[in-house]
Design brief:
globular; Growth Hormone, Chain: A; 22 helices
Length: 500
């Protein structure tokens, strides 16, 4: 091999090996998978409450609104954790912040498992939410920063894959504990009810996440930021061996431009309601991802299916099947995101979600009550089940993973941590609003509730069509040219890109 002078390697035929294929190797895949473990905890901790909702409501004698708040309370911690996590990651590095998240997860798992009332249950869920919020910022940022450009979409999608595996594991463990005890409210090991063991099980992945964080190398971009170029070069030589000098050069150039821009106060400030346009795009991507109601499926599905006539064991089974569907379509997203691009997947997903949510609204509008029991008559039960799983399919290969990919790559380096934190905080606030309002809204009208989610899905289509840029194939530094500051040297490049 010979060095062409810019850090790339050429084979004996003079062909740039970096241009062949994706730039993937075993090391970078392993690092991305390890970085995505935070996503697993994210999915597990946020969904484990699904199987415990009815038992908690019964044991603590809660009203619907209080139940909704107890379920959604973790999301308040998520919003704070996302905002704080971004700032901490920019200041202290990605790895130390991952370890903080693992500790918070562990504390939450133990605290909720031994909760003696709804108040302390909420407190421990908020603590867990802080850990989820931190993971939601640090994991996608870390994966984006260690990934070769040609494979960044696929590797960033591992975050969503880890999330859906976490959801599946949580729902499966819920079902197993409930089945073994004879019900979520029944006493299981050591005199503790099965729903408590559902939460305590979260201690295992929390410990695993902490160990993984200790073993991971720091992000090369952060190392260059703190003047540790030799260490950054060593890590880049393992994960991007044919593009080390090029990667170092791009990061250095970006850092210099960022340093100049950072001298201007208010790095996130801009002309659109006080924020830069690209920050608003990140926020709205996050909000639409939640306003379509996806987490209603993963937080309340067991309760929902029980409420329309399925018994508890069948409801648990349906929830597990739905989570398996989510995993399968996430693999589809990983296969497509770097081939067809981000925007096409989002547009197809929005259209499919609109139709499936509207179908669910009509199905639930036909529910009937007989002797105090609610059910879906005739074919409406199977229609609702199919529509719900189609909704998960369309979300799972589009808005689920692609939003995380975009959030990891659309923001300029100088504001990446803060902007990603703000977008993730907006996501958790939106998630909180949907989660806390579902119980009272479902009591009011499931037709209205799912009809509202369908409207948001339709609006998400318009938003992507008119506002969301395509970043497929760009380096993180190149993606900054999509939305440069006015008057910057990148403005002409941006105009050319949008013109093409």
């Amino acid at each position: 091999m010979v060095d062409e002078g810019d850090g790339r390697k050429a084979g004996s035929d003079g062909v740039d090996l970096a241009a062949k294929g994706s730039g993937l190797n075993a090391k970078v895949i392993a690092l991305a998978v390890a970085g995505a473990v935070g996503g697993f905890l994210f999915g597990f901790d946020s969904s484990v409450v699904n199987g415990a909702v009815d038992a908690i409501e019964h044991q603590f004698e809660l009203e619907a609104a209080v139940t909704g708040f107890a379920v959604a309370s973790a999301l308040l911690g998520c919003a704070v954790g996302a905002e704080v996590g971004g700032r901490l990651a920019d200041r202290f590095g990605r790895i130390p912040v991952m370890m903080i998240g693992a500790i918070l997860f562990l504390i939450s798992a133990i605290g909720t498992g031994f909760a003696f009332g709804v108040v302390d249950l909420i407190i421990w869920r908020v603590v867990g939410g802080l850990g989820i919020g931190i993971a939601s910022v640090v994991s996608p940022a870390y994966i984006a920063e260690i990934s070769p450009r040609r494979a960044r979409g696929r590797l960033a999608s591992l975050q969503q894959l880890a999330i859906v595996f976490g959801i599946f594991t949580a729902l499966l463990s819920d079902a197993l504990f409930a089945a073994a005890a004879g019900g979520a409210s029944e006493v299981f090991w050591w005199g503790l009810e099965a729903w408590r063991w559902m939460f305590l099980a979260g201690a295992v992945p929390a410990v695993v996440y902490g160990v993984v964080a200790i073993l991971l190398p720091e992000s090369p971009r952060y190392l260059l930021k703190v003047d540790k170029e030799d260490e950054a070069r060593r890590i880049l030589s393992q994960i991007q061996p044919t593009e080390v000098d090029r990667a170092i050069g791009e990061i250095r150039t970006s850092m210099h431009e960022d340093a100049q821009a950072a001298k201007v106060k208010g790095a996130l400030r801009g002309p659109v309601l006080g924020l830069k346009g690209i920050v608003w795009i990140g926020i709205l991507l996050s909000v639409f991802q939640q306003f379509v109601g996806i987490n209603v499926i993963f937080y309340y599905s067991t309760t929902l299916w029980s409420a329309v006539g399925f018994d508890e064991s069948d409801s648990f089974t349906i929830s597990v099947i739905t989570s398996i569907t989510n995993i399968v379509v996430t693999f589809v997203a990983i296969a497509l995101v770097d081939r067809v691009g981000r925007r096409p997947l989002l547009l197809v997903g929005s259209a499919g979600m609109t139709v499936s949510l509207a179908t669910m609204a009509v199905a639930f509008a036909n529910s009937v009550e007989t002797d105090g029991a609610v059910s879906l008559p005739g074919a409406w039960g199977p229609i609702a089940l199919v529509a719900a799983n189609l909704f998960v399919v369309f979300f799972g290969f589009s808005w689920g993973p692609v939003v995380w990919v975009l959030l990891g790559e659309i923001f300029p380096g100088r504001i990446r941590g803060r902007a990603l934190g703000l977008a993730a905080a907006a996501q958790w606030i939106a998630n909180f609003l949907i989660t806390v309002t579902f119980p009272p809204l479902s009591d009011f009208s499931l037709l209205f509730t799912y009809g509202m989610y369908a409207v948001f899905a339709a609006l998400s289509f318009v938003f992507v069509l008119t506002k969301v840029p395509e970043t497929n194939g760009m380096s993180l530094e190149e993606s900054e040219t999509l939305f440069p500051a006015k008057g910057s040297a990148k403005a002409g490049v941006a105009a050319d890109r949008r013109g093409n």
